[in-house]
Write a structure and sequence with these properties.
The chain is 77% helix and 0% strand. It is mainly alpha-helical. It has one domain. The longest helix is centred in the middle third of the chain and has 28 residues.
Length: 97
Amino acid sequence: LGAGAALRGRLAARGGMNFGAAASEAFVFEHLEIAQAHLIEQHAQRIGDGATADLAREIRCQDEEMAATVGRNWTNVLSLALATKGLPTLRPPEEAS
C-alpha cells in the first residue's frame, strides 16, 4: 500500500504535477490507507480473525513509515518544487546536531 502511494507520486510528477503536489497527495493517501487499515484491524479483531488483524496491523505500520518518510522530506520537496520552476530554493541553514 505504501509503495502504491510512492509510485503514484512519481507518476504524478511525470504527468506534470509538481513535486509539492505529488508529495502532498502521497502524504494524504498514506493517511487514508492508515485509517482503512485501522478499521480492517478492528473489524478483524471483533470477529476473531487474528490473521487478518495481524496483516492489517503490519500494513498500517508500513503506511505509517511511508507517511513519516514523506513528512521528514518537506524541505527537500519544497526545494525540488522551487528548482523545477527556476526559483531560488533558499534552503534553511542546517540545524545544529
